[in-house]
Amino acid sequence: MKTNVAYLVVLTGLLALIGCTSNKQEGEPAELYKNPEARAIAFASYDRAMKLWPVEYQEDWVQTEYGRTHIIVSGPKGAKPVFLIPGLFADATMWYANVGALAGRYRVYSLDLTVFGGKCEPSAQPVADVDDYVRWFKGLLDHYGHDRVSVAGLSYGSWLSLALAREIPESISTVIMLDPSETFVKMDGGIAWKGFWGFAVFPSRAKYAKFFDWLGGGYNDPQTEIWFEHMLDVIEYGSVGMFDVPRHRIYGSEELTMVTMPVLVMAGGKPILYKDPQEFAAAAARALPHAQIEIVPGTGHSLNVEKAEQVNARLTRFLSENYR
User: Fold this and answer.
1) In the 8-state DSSP scheme, what is residue 244?
2) Angle between the 2-17 and 190-199 helix axes, to the nearest 10 degrees?
3) Chain segment 140-158, per-residue pLDDT in tens
4) What is the rounded distance in angstroms from the CA atom of residue 77 to the CA atom of residue 148?
5) Is 114 helix (H, G, I), strand (E, B) or coil?
6) What is the percentage of the chain residues whose pLDDT exceeds 90?
7) Which of 51, 150, 219, 226 has the most crowded CB, counting CB atoms within 10 A?
8) Containing H/E element for 71?
């Protein structure tokens, strides 16, 4: 009990100190960045990151009740749709290492979320809970005329992919979850302690970078560095904190009985999010007994770039075998 209390105290303090409390007034349009100058900096690094995109793309803005959603669209028109959902404080640019493998066969929609980062233009209608996410996502499907799609996400985006499959299973054909945070089991409390020292004690961009370098397992290359600088811009210049977005949660097996479509779960083998990745795999198997669950040895939270070739091969095989 003492450990749990300590974890909650530290986590609560961490979230508050890195800007997690909201200063937004109810009914006011949400601004994703602190001011126009901050937005310009983040947009410029977004565009630099998009130079890593290996295939042709178009930028779309889709109007929903939650504002204009910015989407990067790649792949042949008329092909089966795959929607990619980013992790917390990431955006569509994070999929630069994966879209090339998917876009040859699928119509790939890489989403920015209206709740943080990216180039969306939120409305006064907030995304406050899963029901809002569902209405927002169905608005995207209606816009493009899709009845059923495949969804894939990393971290927070993995949880959101599963949440959508749980709420609107009739609209989801397959689910891909890369290193989900929470969702099946609590994360290692060490993350809160490291985050506390990285964000709460004389916070700086360099300390943010150190924390996320640890979270990613220490992997880096010239392309990752370009994308990572954009993510740091989103964190430094963005106006949204962790308490401004719907919180993800852990699902029990009794809450996932409607998730009968094929599911692939891949998690990093380094003990970062979870002290024992095998315990995470066991919890995922209990919650979704039919899911395909794999641990990728020697990789951290950013397995989609660190082990891009391996992950891409697995994603394309899973979709080829299961996406009907």
Assistant:
1) G
2) 30
3) 999 999 999 999 999 999 9
4) 16
5) coil
6) 72
7) 150
8) strand 67-74
The predicted pLDDT at position 28 comes to 46
Who contacts 83 (Cβ-Cβ below 8 Å, separation ≥6)? 109, 111, 137, 140, 149, 150, 151, 152
Nearest to 154, CA basis, from 210, 104, 227: 227
Cβ atoms of 75 and 104 within 8 Å: the answer is yes
Amino acid at residue number 251 = Y
Q: Please give the pLDDT value at position 273.
A: 87
Measured distance CA(249)–CA(114) in Å, rounded? 20
Kindly give the interhelix angle for 205-215 and 190-199, rounded to the nearest 10 degrees.
Answer: 160
Instruction: At 105, give phi and psi (nearest 5°).
Output: -120, -20
Q: What is the DSSP letter of 33?
A: B
Q: Is residue 243's pLDDT more than 80?
A: no
The tokens 């910015």 sit on which residue?
Answer: 70
pLDDT for residue 22 is more than 50: no
Helix, strand, coil distribution of the chain in percent, nearest 5: 45, 15, 40
Query: CA 160 → CA 83, 144, 150, 187, 313, distances in Å?
Result: 12, 20, 13, 17, 23
E strand residue ranges, 158-269? 172-178, 263-268
Predicted local distance difference test score (pLDDT) of residue 233: 96
User: pLDDT digit string (tens) for 208-218?
Assistant: 888 788 788 88
Gap between the Cα atoms of 140 and 61, Å rounded: 10
- Per the structure block, which two tokens stand in for 147? 């009845």
Q: Which residues, in sequence order, are CB contacts of 218 under 8 Å at separation 6+?
A: 300
- Long-range contacts formed by 2-6: CB under 8 A, 24+ apart: 3/189, 6/189
Q: Domain 2-16+27-322: state its class.
A: alpha beta
Cα atoms found within 13 Å of the Cα of residue 230, Cβ hemisphere only: 24
Strand-pair partners of 74: 108
Burial classification of residue 282, based on how many CB atoms lie within 10 Å of its CB (0-12 exposed, 13-18 middle, 19 or more buried): middle
pLDDT tens digits along 261-301: 999 999 999 988 888 999 999 999 999 999 999 999 999 99
In this structure, what token pair is assigned to residue 170?
A: 């009739």
